[in-house]
């Protein structure tokens, strides 16, 4: 069935940038960036909310909740279901669906499976764009609505577990950050009696370099005294190599918040004499130089054959026991502006800016105790990520068979 037989295809529009007051409203106005940032099936929030005047000025169309959004240029094929009434910019071809013929989630999954076909509908020289007419005439295999609902229920159950695991990871990461703040910002780590150190009257001493008190016996050092740094590999894609590697790129860092998803690494063949020195060691910390400058990530499931690209800096702690502590020191600085005493990271991250970061160095007993707790949280996060990799593979395996009728549903 052609799309125009069960849905109205809607192109968006953009209010004039010369009227900034158009962008201070309460009407949800999606751009492709909103879909790529959220990376989820359902969306309800956006970066820019427009006013009624902005809405009227560009003659965009209000879409009802449940509409399927699809970016139609730069890039083609970002998909989501709007959970709220909304409008979009001109980078979309969205679907206002007749629910008596098609379930929005079925269309979402169908387009997800056939997105390469949709991309081929694009035309243009500067950048490819899918026209409204080509989308309207695109053929979709629509089974009976009851069959659609059965197919959706299977896929939705898998997606629900994946979403729950993602929520678990977010909560565990928040717990780890809270533990770091409690112990190393408020200095209420457990004392020898198991009580909060500073709140229980633990001895504090003034530090001139930081302009604040720190626990007695703790040191203050630049990060360059605690770690070594190294930029990642730059390579010629056309050069013939003799060894296959997995490589961490900036997009892998941008797509994660703490632990890297190793299932999404690219593979590349390079000369071992060139690339082996960029192999990631178990205690390394990876820091983005671009994309999200200063973003700090860890690779837990290290296969010993993974390297990192030239837009990433490797931080190798001199003392492996400090790995997790230093990771959260750096994580806390993401997105801050540089100051001499705060040890914050500049927007253009380099080995020099990292090396000048001033770090409080706790005693070994405290860092060992912190490491044990963090390792437990990270292990739970890693388990959830591995389960999601397996569930994603299962869903992607079932999706074409369900859509093509190879697997029958009752």
Distance between the ends: 22 Å
| Top CATH class of the domain at 219-361 | Alpha Beta
Instruction: Please bin the fraction of helical residues.
Output: 25-40%
Total of DSSP H or I helical runs spanning 4+ residues: 11
Q: What is the H level of CATH, i.e. the homologous superfamily of the domain at 219-361? A: DNA methylase specificity domains
Q: Based on helices, strands and strand pairing, what is the structural class?
A: alpha+beta
Number of strand segments = 19
The CATH topology annotation of the domain at 219-361 reads as Adenine-n6-DNA-methyltransferase TaqI, Chain A, domain 2
Rg = 25 Å
Query: Low-confidence parts, pLDDT < 50 over ≥5 residues?
Result: 338-346
What would the keywords be for this entry?
Adenine-n6-DNA-methyltransferase TaqI, Chain A, domain 2, 34% helix, three-stranded mixed beta sheet, 410 residues, 11 helices, alpha+beta, globular, four-stranded antiparallel beta sheet, 19 strands, single chain
What features would you describe in this structure?
With 410 residues, the protein is α+β, with helices and mostly antiparallel strands. The chain is built from 11 helices and 19 strands. The chain has helices at 32-38, 52-58, 104-113, 115-120, 132-136, 145-184, 250-254, 272-275, 323-332, 351-355, 364-403; strands at residues 7-11, 27-30, 42-43, 48-50, 68-72, 76-82, 87-88, 93-97, 204-207, 212-215, 219-222, 227-231, 243-248, 266-270, 285-288, 296-297, 306-308, 312-317, 358-361. It has a 4-stranded antiparallel beta sheet, covered by helices on one side. It has a 3-stranded mixed beta sheet with strand order 4-2-7. The protein is globular.
């Amino acid at each position: 069935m052609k799309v125009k037989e069960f849905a109205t295809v809607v192109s968006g529009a953009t209010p004039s940038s010369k009227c900034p007051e158009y962008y201070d409203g309460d009407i949800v106005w999606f751009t492709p960036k909103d879909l790529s940032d959220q990376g989820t099936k359902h969306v309800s929030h956006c970066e820019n909310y427009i006013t009624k005047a902005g809405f009227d000025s560009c003659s965009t169309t209000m879409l009802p909740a449940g509409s399927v959004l699809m970016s139609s240029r730069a890039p083609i094929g970002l998909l989501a279901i709007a959970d709220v009434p909304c409008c979009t910019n001109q980078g979309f071809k969205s679907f206002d669906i007749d629910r008596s013929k098609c379930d929005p989630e079925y269309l979402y999954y169908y387009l997800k499976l056939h997105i390469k076909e949709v991309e081929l509908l694009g035309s243009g020289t500067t950048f490819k764009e899918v026209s409204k007419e080509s989308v309207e005439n695109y053929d979709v295999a629509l089974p009976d609505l009851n069959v659609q609902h059965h197919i959706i229920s299977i896929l939705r159950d898998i997606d629900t577990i994946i979403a729950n695991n993602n929520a678990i990871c977010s909560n565990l990461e928040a717990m780890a950050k809270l533990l770091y703040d409690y112990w190393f910002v408020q200095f209420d780590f457990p004392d020898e009696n198991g009580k909060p150190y500073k709140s229980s009257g633990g001895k504090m001493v003034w530090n001139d370099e930081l302009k604040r008190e720190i626990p007695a016996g703790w040191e203050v050092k630049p990060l360059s005294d605690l770690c070594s740094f190294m930029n990642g590999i730059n390579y010629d894609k056309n050069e013939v190599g003799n060894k296959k590697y997995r490589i961490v790129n900036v997009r892998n860092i941008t797509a994660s918040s703490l632990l890297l998803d190793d299932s999404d690494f690219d593979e590349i063949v390079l000369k071992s004499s060139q690339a082996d020195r960029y192999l990631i060691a178990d205690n390394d910390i990876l820091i983005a130089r671009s994309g999200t400058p200063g973003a700090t990530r860890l690779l837990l499931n290290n296969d010993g054959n993974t390297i990192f690209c030239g837009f990433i800096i490797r931080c190798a702690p001199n003392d492996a026991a400090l790995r997790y502590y230093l990771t959260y020191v750096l994580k806390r600085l993401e997105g801050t502006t540089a100051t001499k005493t705060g040890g914050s990271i500049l927007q253009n991250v380099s080995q020099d800016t990292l090396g000048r970061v001033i770090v409080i160095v706790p005693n070994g007993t405290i860092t060992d105790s912190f490491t044990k707790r963090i390792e437990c949280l990270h292990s739970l996060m890693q388990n959830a990520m591995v389960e999601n990799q397996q569930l994603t593979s299962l869903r992607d395996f079932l999706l074409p068979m369900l859509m093509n009728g190879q697997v029958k549903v009752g």
